[in-house]
Amino acid sequence: DDELDVCQMFKVFLERKGFQVRTCLNALDAVREFRSERPDVVLSDYQMPEMSGLELLVVLKGMDSAVPVILMSGAADMRSAVEALKADAFDFLKKPIDSKALLQVIETAVRRAREGSSPDKGVEAGSVYGPVMHSLTGAKQDISFLQIHGPLDERSIPRLTSAFAKIFEDRVLKGKAIISLKNVDYINN
C-alpha cells in the first residue's frame, strides 16, 4: 500500500496473528522484495502510483504463477474486481477490510498455496500448522512428514514454536518423523 499508516496497521494485525510480514510503499519495491524473498501470500492495494495493484499482480504471476495475490480497494468498482479475478487474483476485498474476513482469506490462500506445492511422491496431503505442514507417509502411514516453509531465523521462532505446540497438542506425530525444509533460503543458528 502506498500509505504508511495502512501498511503499519496490517503489519501489526497480521504479526499478532503469527504471520511474518514485509511491507512496501510502492509496487516497484514490492517486486524487488518478491524477488529476494518469495512470500506465501501477497496483499496489495489496487490503486497505487507508478504501478497499479492489477499490474503488480500480472508481474508477480509472471515471476511465480502459484503465488496467491489478494487485492484490496476502497474505490474500485465491480469491473475492477472482475478484471483482477480474471488476471488470477486470489481474492478482491473492499475497504474498509473486515479483519476476520481478511484473516480467513489469507489463511485459505496460504493453505491452498502449500497444498499446490504438494509434498513428495508417496506423502499424503496433511494439516497446515502455520509454517509447518504435517502429513503421514510410509506403507502404514506410520511416519510423520513435516515440511517447514520460509526462513529459519529469530523472527520465525514464535511462529515455529506455536506450530509445534499445536502439533504436539493435536497428538499427530508418529514414532518417526522426516523434516523437510521447503523454500527455505535462509537459516540462522
Account of the protein in words:
This protein is of the alpha/beta class. The protein is 40% helix and 19% strand. It is built from six helices and seven strands. The strands form two sheets. A four-stranded mixed β-sheet has the order 4-5-6-7. The protein has a three-stranded parallel β-sheet with strand order 1-2-3, with helices on both faces. Helix 2 packs parallel to helix 3 (53-63). The longest helix is centred in the middle third of the chain and has 18 residues, at 99-116. The protein is elongated, with a radius of gyration of 18 Å.
Question: Which helices and strands appear, and what pairs or packs with what?
Answer:
Elements: H1 4-16, H2 27-36, E1 42-45, H3 53-63, E2 69-73, H4 78-86, E3 91-94, H5 99-116, E4 127-129, E5 132-137, E6 143-149, H6 157-170, E7 176-182
Parallel strand pairs: 1-2, 2-3, 6-7
Antiparallel strand pairs: 4-5, 5-6
